[in-house]
Design goal:
single chain, 394 residues, alpha/beta, D-Maltodextrin-Binding Protein, domain 2, 2 domains, six-stranded mixed β-sheet, five-stranded mixed β-sheet, 16 helices
Length: 394
C-alpha cells in the first residue's frame, strides 16, 4: 500500500467510526439486497421502502426475492448481492467451512419463528414427536438447533433418512425444505410439523387450521435468527458504505417498532408486495401474540413464559456476543447432513470475536439515540456493557 492509498483508507475509516447518524461522505457502491420471502428480511425491506438508504446518500436497487437459502448464499458469494440476510448459523458455515470472507454487521430481528404442527397429528409437546417427520429450513439454522435441543430434552433422537414410515418410537426424521414449501408439505401430510420463520406459521394457521406448538421466542428469549451479512473485503475497502448501510438498518428497526401494523401493510400484497402474502397473514405475525389464544389452558400451549414479555417478532440490531457463543456451542452438538467436524476446530469465544463486526453497529445505535429503544439494550451509564445473559427454557 502506497502512502496515498494508506491515507485514503485511514480517512475513510475515521469517517465511518466518527460519523453522525447520516454520513455525508461519498460512496459509489450501490446497495444490492437479496432476501427470502420471510419476515426476517423486514429491516432491509423497510429500509428500502422508506428510502433510508437514499437518506444516507446511497443508491439502492429493488431487493431481489430468492426462494431458498442455498441460492441466496450462492448469489451473494458470486457478487450478485452485497447485503443479505442469512440465518445466523449460515455465515458460520460459510466462513469456517467454506473459508468465505463474510461478516455479520447487525441482527435483523428477534424471535419471529415457531414450531407448527398438523391439527390432526396429536402433537402437544416435544415428547409427542417420536416417529414423526419434521421439516427444517436449513441444516445450519437456529431452527434445527433449537428443535434438536427440545428433542434431546424429551429423550428423542434426531435422524436424517429418506422419507419412511419405519421410524422407531424414539426417532424423529428431519427433512430439509425451503420455507415456502412447508405449508404444502404439511397439507399433503408429507410431514407432521415444521419449524421455520414467519409468515409461514401464520399462513398455516389461517389456511390449514394448523397449530403452533411453541413459539421459538418462548424457548429462547429474544433470540436472533437472521443477521445482516456483508463481505469482509467490501467492509474493509468501503467503511463509509458499510456504516451507511448499518445506519439505515438501525433506523428501519426503530421505525418498525413504532409502526408494526403499517409494516405489515407495506410488506403485503396490498402494499408494496415485498412478501407474497396478504395483509391479514402478516398482521397476525406483527400483532398477534396473545396468551389468551396461545397460553395456559390451550393445547398445544405455544406460550409458556408470558412473564418474559417478548413479541411474536421483535427488532433489535445489536449482535450480542453471548448469543453467538451460545448458538455456536449448540451447533457443535447438532445433527446435520454432511460433515460438520470443522466446528470442533473453533471456540465460541473466537467465533463471537472473529465473525461479527461491532464498531459500525455500535456507532449507528449511539448516534441514532437508539440505546433505549431496543430490547435488552441499555447503554449509557459507566456500568453498562454491550452484553446480555441468554435465557433458555424449553
Amino acid at each position: 500500500m502506497n502512502r496515498r492509498s494508506f491515507l485514503k483508507t485511514s480517512i475513510l475509516a475515521a469517517a465511518a467510526v466518527n460519523s453522525s447518524f447520516s454520513i455525508k461522505a461519498a460512496s459509489r457502491e450501490t446497495v444490492r439486497i437479496g432476501y427470502l420471502p420471510i419476515t426476517d428480511a423486514t429491516p432491509l425491506l423497510i429500509a428500502h421502502a422508506n428510502k433510508y438508504f437514499e437518506a444516507e446518500g446511497l443508491t439502492a436497487e429493488p431487493p431481489a426475492l430468492i426462494r431458498n437459502w442455498s441460492a441466496l448464499a450462492e448469489s451473494f458469494l458470486a457478487g450478485k448481492f452485497n447485503v443479505v440476510h442469512l440465518l445466523l448459523p449460515i455465515p458460520i458455515w460459510m466462513r469456517y467451512n467454506n473459508k468465505s470472507s463474510v461478516k455479520i454487521v447487525a441482527w435483523d430481528h428477534l424471535n419471529g419463528s415457531a414450531f407448527t404442527v398438523r391439527n390432526d397429528a396429536g402433537i402437544q409437546n416435544f415428547s409427542d414427536l417420536g416417529g414423526k417427520h419434521i421439516a427444517v429450513p436449513h441444516w445450519y439454522s437456529m431452527h434445527n438447533v433449537i428443535l434438536q435441543m427440545g428433542l434431546k430434552k424429551a429423550g428423542l433422537k434426531p435422524i436424517i433418512v429418506p422419507h419412511t414410515n419405519d421410524l422407531k418410537k424414539d426417532e424423529v426424521n428431519l427433512l430439509l425444505l425451503p420455507p415456502p414449501e412447508m405449508p404444502t408439505a404439511l397439507a399433503s401430510k408429507r410431514i407432521e410439523g415444521f419449524i421455520v420463520a414467519e409468515p409461514f406459521n401464520a399462513l398455516a394457521e389461517l389456511k390449514l387450521k394448523a397449530k403452533i406448538m411453541r413459539f421459538t421466542g418462548d424457548m429462547w428469549k429474544n433470540h436472533p435468527c437472521c443477521v445482516v451479512v456483508m463481505k469482509e473485503d467490501l467492509i474493509k475497502s468501503d467503511p463509509v458504505f458499510t456504516q451507511k448501510v448499518v445506519n439505515a438498518v438501525v433506523r428501519s428497526q426503530k421505525w418498525i417498532l413504532q409502526n408494526l401494523g403499517k409494516t405489515a401493510e407495506i410488506l403485503s400484497n396490498e402494499g408494496k408486495g415485498y412478501l407474497p402474502m396478504p395483509k391479514e397473514t402478516l398482521m397476525r405475525v406483527f400483532t398477534n401474540y396473545d396468551p389468551a389464544i396461545y397460553g395456559k389452558g390451550q393445547n398445544p400451549q405455544a406460550i409458556k413464559h408470558p412473564e418474559w414479555g417478548v413479541k411474536r417478532i421483535g427488532f433489535q440490531p445489536y449482535p450480542f456476543p453471548s448469543a453467538t457463543r451460545f448458538i455456536f456451542k449448540q451447533m457443535q452438538q447438532t445433527v446435520v447432513q454432511g460433515d460438520n467436524t470443522f466446528l470442533q476446530k473453533y471456540t465460541p469465544d473466537f467465533v463471537a470475536k472473529d465473525l461479527v463486526v461491532y464498531d459500525f453497529i455500535k456507532n449507528a445505535i449511539r448516534n441514532s439515540g437508539g440505546t433505549g429503544a431496543f430490547t435488552d439494550l441499555k447503554i449509557g451509564s459507566p456500568t453498562d456493557t454491550w452484553e446480555r445473559e441468554e435465557v433458555i427454557e424449553l
